Fold each of these.
Amino acid sequence: MSNNGAGSSPKLRREAGIIGLLYASLGAIIGSGWLKGPLNAAVHAGPLSLFSWLIGGGAILLLAVVYAELATLFPRAGAVVHFPRLSHGSLLARIWSWILFLAYVSVAPAEVVASLNYLDVMLRRFSIHWIPPFLYKGADGAHLLTGTGIIIAIALLGVFTLLNFLGIKWAMRISNTAGWWKLAIPLLTAVMLLTAGHHWQNFHINPADSRSQIEGIFTSLSTAGVLFSFLGFRQAVELAGESSNPRRNIPIAVVGSVLIGLLIYLLLQAGFIASVDPHTLATTGWAKLTTAGYLAQFGAAPLAAAAQALGLIWLTWILYVDAVISPGGTGFIYITTSARVISAMGSDGLIHRVFTRLSRNGVPWVAGILAFAVGVIFLLPLPSWSQLVGYISSVSVLSYGIGPVVLISLRKLMPETQYPRAFRLPAAHILAPVTFIISNLMIYWSGLRTLGILMIALAFIFTVFMAWRLINGLSVRALAWRSTWWVLPYFLGLLLLDFIGPHHLVGGTNLIPFPYDTLVVAAFSLAIFYLAVHSTVSVEELETYIATQEI
């Protein structure tokens, strides 16, 4: 193993083609979300859950096209780490690198937990008792990992990490092979549930439930895994530095993956709604659907339970097999890109440069080991899929919500006459602030508890960083405060909005009711957006940084 600083040392290899990038993003989108999301969304919003997928997919599509322009402007592995550095300097880049780090390394554990959910149900379904259970039901009804489950989950994360050491070419081959399966099985499942279930009366909206289900459209975005599912689009962005033709491949991969994923999820949600037994639904309602009947017994594997209830035993077996392939493939992809993000942090001086070291196959192997180690930690305090997903959705949208700010800032700092764009977002001065508003609404709807945990984690990391600088005699004043000061009112403002928001929606104090809280969040977002855009680094600072980079 050697560092990547010498001329003879290994380099990231540009071996990822358009199909590989498309399947990397699509494979991350079609992960555990499709196996568990339809039930969770239906519990929150009933038949209106279809609108959750439309809103979530539309919001992520806006983010995707923003990053399509940024990625083609700066095609580099782990490029998302560098974008804030270009527009707002090293301090903002450091803060957002922490957010990105927390967002990426937590996904693979969530995918592994989803796989073990289905595997545990299969073992109980077929009375295989010689293998200890992987799950137990917590006090709140969530399916949590047992000690055995945690050990197996750690082993699976280790397998994903070792496979990544084969190199990006092999990673893309594995992704492409799994990609065909991951497309075919969800589509097959959706069609079979629609045709075998055909309980079209389930799409009727009960007026008594309409208000709670309308609010459920928004709460399910974070808590049911809707946003979590679509955030896989970013894989192609992170692998831009290993693409054979990034200026052509990246826009097609990020936009195409979101559109295909949206179609699949809409069909799956409709199929699940049509498959629910109307008699069970009349007894429990959508909100308590998991408390009675077949879903109470096998709720950790809802699609398999639905297929079995409809007599589709063969499909049940396929779903059990897919419960290993789909989340496993997505976990593998996220281990791949997590290592690239960590390596990018090292190359930009945001963490120690040891994490930039590449193997002979051009793989950032030290970064891969770190991604595995931190992923293991996430399995311990947050061992249920729903707990992990709520956290990941919030931190991931926060990490990507900076994109619209960076896009407009770089339009000002890096004019197209000097830095031509292979892909240019039309009407960016309208779409960028709208996207920023939508991103903040997604964060807001994740709730006060989730956002509070995230902010506490960031405050802790920032305190440790400042203490480290003081202990080592490094200047605090030398940090890029002028271009980063707006982050403090941004983060505190998001917390305050959740605190005064509706209790039943975000866990707040009901000072601002729904839907007026949405207007307040939008106004706040616009104010922060324009503060941020007017707080960029100078052109001279940017040009100095660019001179040291391969842009």
Amino acid sequence: MQKRSTSTLFILLLILTGQLYGQESLLKGRILNAINNEPVPFATVVLKDGKQTYPANADSAGFYMITVPQPGLFNLEVIMTGFKSYYQFEIELTPKRVTEINIPLEEDQKTLGEITITAQPFIRKEESPLSMRSIGLAEIKRNPGGNRDISKVLQSLPGVASVPSFRNDLIVRGGSPNENRFFLDGIEVPNINHFATQGASGGPVGLLNVDFINEVDFYSGAFPANRGNALSSVLDLKFKDGRTDKAGLNFTLGATDLASTFDGPISKNSTLIASYRRSYLQFLFAALELPFLPTYNDFQFKYKIKPDNKQEFTFLGLGAYDVFVLNKKANKTEEQQYLLGNLPENNQWTYTIGGSYKRYSENSYITVVLSRNHLNNRAEKYQNNDDAVSSNKILDYTSEEIENKFRLERTTLNNGWKTNAGISAEQSTYTNSTFNRIPNVGTVNYASEINFIKYGAFGQISKTLPGMGLVISLGGRLDANTFGSKMKNPADQFSPRLSLSKTITERLTFNANSGIYYQLPAYTILGFRDNDNMLVNKGVKYIRSTHFVAGFEYQNKKNSKYTIEGFL
């Protein structure tokens, strides 16, 4: 009887395993022209998993669909005469949901009118032919010790310095942590970490839900002209669009937090993907009898509306609420008592909310971006941690940073010339109120507020010269603001840049870039006042950095490349 039961159980497990691995996965989407958003008909779409190849052709309206017998990681390749080949590596397909990927193809002057195409698995951007790394979702998830944190993945890349394990600061090619800029779907986000360090870009825990991420471009040099106010790096992230077939709700239990995510259509022409996360780290710290208890919360969403094939609206939100309190029960050891005596309690909230509008025409498209971000940072400390009496307060710090931003840009492709040009404006507010009573030293009672306007213009033009095997891109920015007399003239912050890519053989390329970049000093510097309540740094200038980068890239026939770069 026992033998028969065991055999029956074994057979049931085999059946269940076969059902699990036998579930089909579906990938679908549309092939579109990246400039005018018109469908690209009859493109060849190939899905590969290393063993099998699953080919398909888009229909006359650009739609494609591929069914694979089981879930896994797949590489996607799209080939069409007259367009640059498109590659996306390690797409994760699951039986639980339909994966939708709309593919923008760029026209390629080197292949127009030709019959055959030599596909290259790694695409270089004209503006940034080097010092740019694309990172996929699978690479983020499998990074050892990364805990699904994009900042931890970036810290493992060449040119990025290692930092203490409890910090997410990015130190790129010798720069400081505040010299990096982050963009989500073209909307600038000041910081992508919880418990952010004001005036820098670090923090101990990542803010982004990586399940939202579709692709990541990390620039450690050769920045595009439409990405300003950066000296060390630019991180350009794109969130996934919500699924169009049906709505779904799922929950994720991470190493330190619990998340819920909604994903699905809202109407015929709109989709939403949204999530909320809350940590349970505070319970772990209390169990370990640590003298401090951090708690973080965050939300993020992307709402997209496509009234027709020529227009799309995107609304994006990202925010966090972080609380850091003392665990007064953990006061047994000298180390615990020292930390309790010196650490303040802190709460911090921040959000970025914005929208973008994209309008396509025959050979160009315009993008309009409006956004607002707000940081509120507060810290308190009482003598002997006794908050029952207000006179025991020895630290009361409150600071806010508010930015309202506007950007208009137009991208055009005409006769092989690709151009991008636009203008930007920003209203900025910074406040600081500090009370700090230091025993045997004195009391600091300090307040500051500044308001000013930033403005700028940018442009970049690129051209492929097939007969010479050369791609060249020339760009520039003008930035200024009303804070001080030494920063009002845009000509004083003219930021030129030049990139070129020269094909030596079919697989070997020489790439180079040089540029001058400017960045405004941190608000904590601009808003600093002396004892007479006068701004100390009214005569400050933009920080300037000049880059020279050059190197070689070799691509083999097995979807891998080797690069070597020199950076000054």
Amino acid sequence: MLRIQQIKLPVTHTEQELAGKIRKLLHVRPEELLRYRICRRSLDARKGELRYVYTIDAEVKQEGTVLKRCRGNAERAKDVPYKFPASGTAMPAGRPVIVGTGPAGLFCGLMLARAGYGPIVLERGQSACERVRTVENFWKLGILDPQSNVQFGEGGAGTFSDGKLNTLVKDPAGRNQKVLEIFVEAGAPEEILYEQKPHLGTDLLVGIVSHIREEIKRLGGEVRFGCQVTDLVLEKGAVRGVAVQKDGQPPEVIEAQTVVLAIGHSARDTFSMLKKRGIPMQPKAFAVGVRMEHPQEMINESRYGKAYPSLLPPASYKVTRKTGSGRGVYSFCMCPGGYVVNASSEKGALAVNGMSYQARDGRNANSAMIVTVTPKDYGGTDVLSGVEFQRKLEQAAYSLGEGKIPVQTFKDFCQNTASAVLGEIRPCMKGAYTLANVRSIFPKELAGALEEGILGCEHLIPGFAREDAVLSGVESRTSSPVRILRNEQLESPVCGLYPCGEGAGYAGGITSAAMDGLKIAEAIAKKYAPCYDIKNSV
């Protein structure tokens, strides 16, 4: 295969025009181009000219001859395919246990199931379909299930998000591509394999994670819902099992020599249990702020120009500013055509997040506008000080809105006064909202940084700091406030315990969490032999 990069065509181009461009660059006749595939496609909206930029792999007749005569336009493709390692020889006592069915836990479980380890995957929340009904009931009636909500349940917090699949993680081992391929196998559209910023909306993710779960079960694994891990069984510096609570029944102990902690960034009670058990952890930086809504059409025109073709997808943005005091304020988890959602998981506390469906056809764009906080900011020497900082903000937000999402215009945020009316922008929200003074949730320094940062983004996107932009709070679950320590073998100092994914502090989104799940599965496979008799289990 020959690889051609930087093929640029107008966004309105046809397939025939793309094929013609490939033939022209390779200097081949139509019959000599056997086939081609898109490796990468990005949208270039600079200089007012809208173009797609392609990287293409092409198969041609007489490849060597073609390469010689078009040198400079093409090179041989050098992709390194993902390879799962050969199994180790140590014999484990019991099957591996995976705690959590977010992307980290599901992908770890899938790879171990494929390799014959018959993992047991435990989830405190509900299956994806049941969880959707529970969450929609919460948004409609305000009845929170602390065990199954936007944060907990099959698919993890990413199920109710924009479903972004791009990542900045360096990937020489090909894990990123493998994760995308697994998503496609589970029902995702093939475009995610080559789009620069692929995404899967909540409506697609529910079916996809359900498919992965069923595949784990088909291969001999188990997936148990409504099972919260409440304790670890430790002996002489090693894990020997987990205690599981289900439906108010007495705790059950599942023996295991290998336990993967893919618990997600909101498993605060689990963090407390780990602290009590002396599992090495440390506090880490994270970010807090608000959700900010603008008309999607305003963002489209800013990115594409006023006369943009209707075939283009809803535009996204990424903005960042540094304040006079040196703090960074930046957008996070931007949702084109999306919704702000009540993402609470604790009674008496309120957190928000952004979500999109696959079509991204909502009238507003929303993004978190956040500022980084460090252990120095939130004070205390306790490893869970960051958790308590998040909780105080969320309790303040809940109290302010009396359980509803507090909302404020940007003008009133700057004036530090509760909003009495909205402007032209009407909130797109899942869950009830009420007008309030969102600024009052935050410490003075953070509120000032948010105001200064948002004002500074006006020259990047005209209208960004408009007075009637809608702010809601509190966005507090951007990443885990702790890191569960692990060594180069990806194992905790407690032997057999594998911290994994975003909750453990080693990922930041769906794809990176799934990639970390693959890494943990590889580490377990390198050490242990698969000793689970799948035939007798089915």
Amino acid sequence: MAPQSATMKSKEEWMEKFSKPEVISGSEILLRSLLLEGVDCVFGYPGGAVLYIYDAMHDNPDFNHLLTRHEQGAIHAADGYARASGKVGVCIATSGPGATNLVTGIATAYMDSVPLVVITGNVMSTLIGTDAFQEADITGITMPITKHSYLVRNVEDLPRVIHEAFHIANTGRKGPVLIDIPKDVSAAKTLFKPVSEVSIRGYNPTVAPNKLQVEKMIKAIGEAKRPIILAGGGVVYSGAHEELLEFVTKTQIPITTTLLGLGGFPSGNELWLGMPGMHGTYTANNSLQQADLLINIGARFDDRVTGKLSGFAPLAKIVHIDIDPAEIGKNVPTDIPIVGDVKTVLQAANKLAERAEGADEWRAQLAASKKQYPFSYKDSEHELKPQWVVEMIHETTNGDAIVTTDVGQHQMWAAQYYPFNQPRSWVTSGGLGTMGFGFPSAIGAQMANPDRLVVSINGDGGMQMCAQELAICAINNIPVKVVILNNQVLGMVRQWQELIHENRFSHIDLAGSPDFVKLAEAYGVRGFRAANKEEARTAWEEAMNHPGPAVVEFVVRRDENVYPMVAQGSTIDQMIMGDAE
């Protein structure tokens, strides 16, 4: 695969290398500052407003840049890199259309609290506001979907701005930060002095919790008969998976994890009830509705989890732990708010945590329900079922792969039938639900984890939105295994049109899509196709054994639905069970 920077150094080594004051260009300052932040891979696409920046990369052995084939591919790859590594993802694009092509990816990262530093070029400072060629007010356009943004007017500010951007992106509630650099600023020269300190007035996220609030939670656990934990992406982002396991082990409280929380708690643990929400498990959904104490740890009470808000968790006292105080009470009234970093809060709670003694009957009830109502589907010997394909992939990878998905039915089947036991192994677009995300995010995940198997599960719709990135897999030998569950239809839209709109199927037919095997081969990537179980096992084995990238198209049943399903406007215990009924 594409090599990581051959001259990877620690921040201290970079500081020593760049310690001698030099007059250099803004572009060189940018590259040096990124190296000082520990950046080992940048995804991007050049253009006129960033030509000085790309010129500074020329013959620079210290800097590792991956040229994608679309700016959206670049930012989704940076996003996948960040989710799979815990580091800040970085991408670069030119002004105007280059910058606006990043907007969907910025919104994706913002909704899911992913740390990115997004660098855009702009027209010369003297032309800003004149409707110059390829000018766009990208800081204005992205204001609602960035954590913070900068328009750099003076080259002297660049070292400070870049250092601040990384600090803001990766602290508190994480998110994307945009740095817009006019062309004359990237060309201007000044004396470069590395920045190692950061002080931002008004930005001081609360990390340590109020001890009294933690004590209130512990007291509530002691009084509860039916406690439940709802753990979200905040557990993964704060690196709190070990603390969460300790908390659950000590309290013996059953736990459910959201879509973005998958992997934050081991799926093999007997107290794990699965994923809740629109396509969650029967037991997880009912546990939330019957609980008398609900402890939300790093989740934001998304509507896909809560269903009808007025009917959500009607019997429960609500504890909400979150780094972002704006989330607490936003959707669900909270009885015990705890503001702080999830890892720090759980460390404090674990010093006091004891077994929830009054919940023995509750644990037994949920264990029996979990056994009685697993995810299920009607298998077939005559056609490939997508659920079976995901189960086969889980079996053959021992559940140890990093799995990325696009958005739609295949995303839910992957969440349901590929259980995770470690964090940062699941990369998917949650809040925004971005089609086209799955494949390029796998490239970023692979760059961040060159020694791990990365499997990208896609539908035939989403795959066509960023299929051009197959080129960089081939050129750089990035060994992502691309799975396409091809049902020749926009599956989730078709499912809703069947169940909610009385079989009025409107503009969902994807017939005429390319031959994905030939498409892969056109880019220089090995391609395989399977239409039955025997072919599926053979094709997948060959793809797994192939040392480079591979695409495997599984031709699956067109009319398969994702169950359970909670229709909009229903409470989450009002599930359509489908094949499980």
